[in-house]
Amino acid sequence: MKPTATSKKISSSEPVTIHSPLSSAADLDPLIQLIGDSKYVLLGEASHGTHEYYIWRTAISKRLIEEKGFSFIAVEGDWPDCYQVNRFVKSYPDAPVKVTDLLKKFNRWPTWMWSNWEIAALAEWLKNHNLHLEDHHKAGFYGLDVYSLYESLDNMLKYLSTEDPEAAEYVKSAIHCFEPFHGDDHKHPGNISKICKEKVKALLLQIKSKLPGYDKDREAPLNTEQNAYVALNAEKYYSDMLSFGSNSWNIRDMHMADTLERLMKFHGKNAKAIIWEHNTHIGDARATDMKDDGLLNIGQILREKHQSDGVVLVGLGSYKGTVVAGPKWGAPMKIMEVPEAREDSIEAMLHNESATNRLIISEKQKGVYRKSIPHRAIGVVYNPEREHWGNYVPSIMAERYDAFLFFDETKALHPIHTAPDKSETPETYPFGM
């Protein structure tokens, strides 16, 4: 996405937004009403390291699961790691007793995205919610992302070595192909692409032909098939990225959308999905400059394919605060200052109207909300000094989202890999959630 130049402050003559105050879970009523019987609810975030985004997505998710029977939460995380969280929240026999023991195993940078106290609290709530439900009614937790090439291959090998030794040989062949680069996805070379691609294709075909026999538990076929798809699409993703192709973004989002389709099929005709991803994935790409570069995302894909089933896109953003991020890829995480939003942005406009948190329903908005306006997007790599020339995506807010949660000031997430400050317990259960 292209950085945009700083322009003048939004004119005070522009219409103010119509909004609802946001201080408790009850204030989400207009959003719950908007969602209605929709089957897909996508919850965004303007960064991967902001406390408020996680706890408010938790508040929304809890209401959707309790009041509307949503089937699962699917996140911008790796399938193998998140699948272990899924087994924890459903109390499978092999699941660990403590969720923190599980989340500490999330070792792919940025570890803090899912290894944090806010997610620990959500997982504990899901487990308690599921405790007395039948297996097919338990709410799940899954990862949609494509990065876990080696972990997915390793997981398949462990399972198939006893369940299907013939298929395990296909896994071994694929692992052998990638062996020289094992443990460092970013060194996967394009020149072995053709050989490895054929091996993972053969693996997937073998797995699909044997799925009915993988009946160790009801989710074993789903897990095995998904790991095979991760291996196939991760190979495509890394090959494109490292050959300086321009399609890696689309490969990744199409993989996430296809994974969601498999999850919906597994959970049956009445399945409903909650998706947690960055705004750049869930906000309709057609309402941003992403479309100029030929980029799409899961929000656009779902609207195009499933609008008749109900698709609600919810963005989240803030004016200032602190965030957990890294100064470069793989660097130690830091708590960084998020400066006040630039003067021509939607965040500044909302702050200037009122320095309060609120819920905005897009269909009620006029004025700048229906024009292209800079909208902040912070990644896992962040440099606050570049804030005012980068980190903003030109967006038509009313078309990008169906609703937007604005927070005037936010604070950093609480990673599990960093000992929490004992003087301030992480506020993972606000307003009685």
Automatic annotation (TrEMBL):
<dbReference type="InterPro" id="IPR007815">
    <property type="entry name" value="Emycin_Estase"/>
</dbReference>
<dbReference type="Pfam" id="PF05139">
    <property type="entry name" value="Erythro_esteras"/>
</dbReference>
<protein>
    <submittedName>
        <fullName>Erythromycin esterase</fullName>
    </submittedName>
</protein>
<dbReference type="InterPro" id="IPR052036">
    <property type="entry name" value="Hydrolase/PRTase-associated"/>
</dbReference>
<dbReference type="InterPro" id="IPR014622">
    <property type="entry name" value="UCP036794_erythomycin"/>
</dbReference>
<dbReference type="GO" id="GO:0046677">
    <property type="term" value="P:response to antibiotic"/>
</dbReference>
